[in-house]
Amino acid sequence: MKATEARGGRTENGESEERRMSDKRSQWLTPKVRDDEQARESLQGWFATVLPDERVRVAAISRPATGGSSETLFVDVTRDTGHAALTERFVVKVEPLDFQLNYSRSLPDEYRLLETLSARGLPVPAPRWFETDPAILGASFFVMDFVTGRTPPHRPSYNAEGWLHDAPVSDRRHLWDSAMQGLCGLAAVPAADVAFLSRPALGGSGIEQQLGYWGAALGWSTDGAAPAMLRRALGWLEDRMPAQPDRLSWGDARIGNMLFAGFDCRAIVDWELASLAGPLADLSWWLFFDDIHSSDQNLPRLDGLGDRKATIARFEELTDHSSEHLPWFMVFTALRLSTLFIRRLQMVPIDGQSATNNYAYRYLEQLMDSVPAQYSQETRAC
């Protein structure tokens, strides 16, 4: 299921990019690559094959309000067993072909990961079926359960208005801790259970593989002409890569990719960037987006939501994992997001934005002006 995507930052004149882009939300949506009625007819026959003992009708198809990495369909299916009829909503994620944000992705591995995490009782949408035949929708796709829930709004930021903003402090604190437990619970997944995420052609360890992946993605998204500051950051990361055990990384760890029932985290969604880079990759991503929705927009963080210090402390408490190498991972996160932003601009240009004028680039630029002096070669020792 595609949850809302976070965007933020500030333009050079101080205007909030979050607000400025709110009227251009459609620019960030994955373009429709198939007609909804044709998809409904195709899926009508397909659901009849996977639910052969029921009379099945695809009643409606809709799409999420936001999303940028793959085409996602909400499919309402009426199922009649002969005793009762019910309508159930499923989510269909279609493998991106022409409209490709990520350098590469494995839809089968994403589905397998959902199977693995669901079997462990972790809060993810339950996967139902995987289809490889492109004759149905023009590409492979998988189907998972629809999870009813809500995400904190991001346009404008949840720190400015919306249901979380209007909630009592005690409820906000409960939501934050539930989100942290969901995030940190991933660190307990045994590496052996997710070994299929390994990409040995890119390097030895999970971190080395991810650095190799994002170096290749940067070259791909810039046609080999990456901005000098991004090349400098990549070199800095390569020279100071910490030794860390392979562990699961969600890849897109942010509160906007969680669904809440009341103030309890009910589902963690969007797994296409999952890897073996480990929990610090997720913590740094989480902190980046927390900044985007608060200090980067000159917004005070809502009372009840943990600040940077509290988040790091809770992470260490729940995962028993040191944050010693967090400065390295913050640079890594900013490089990843800068690369994604460049690719996104190639696909859907946005007025006033460029490879060197966007929130991710500016964030990375600030880090490269401060982190190298703090993070010495000696810090790498484990």
Describe the structure.
This protein has 382 residues and is of the alpha+beta class. The protein has 2 domains: 36-145, Phosphorylase Kinase, domain 1 (2-Layer Sandwich), CATH 3.30.200.20; 150-376, Aminoglycoside phosphotransferase (APH), C-terminal lobe (Aminoglycoside 3'-phosphotransferase, Chain: A, domain 2, Alpha-Beta Complex), CATH 3.90.1200. Helix content is 38%, strand content 12%. The chain contains 11 helices and 7 strands. The chain has helices at residues 17-20, 36-50, 107-119, 134-137, 169-185, 206-221, 228-239, 279-292, 308-319, 326-347, 359-374, and strands spanning 55-62, 71-80, 85-94, 127-131, 141-145, 258-261, 264-268. The strands form 2 sheets. It has a 5-stranded antiparallel beta sheet, sandwiched between helices. Strands 6-7 form a two-stranded antiparallel sheet. Strand 1 (55-62) and strand 2 form a beta hairpin. Helix 5 (169-185) crosses helix 9 (308-319), helix 7 runs antiparallel to helix 10 and helix 8 (279-292) packs across helix 10 (326-347). The radius of gyration is 21 Å and the shape is globular. GO terms for molecular function: transferase activity. Keywords: Transferase. Residues 72-310 form the Aminoglycoside phosphotransferase domain. This is Phosphotransferase family protein. Pfam families: APH.
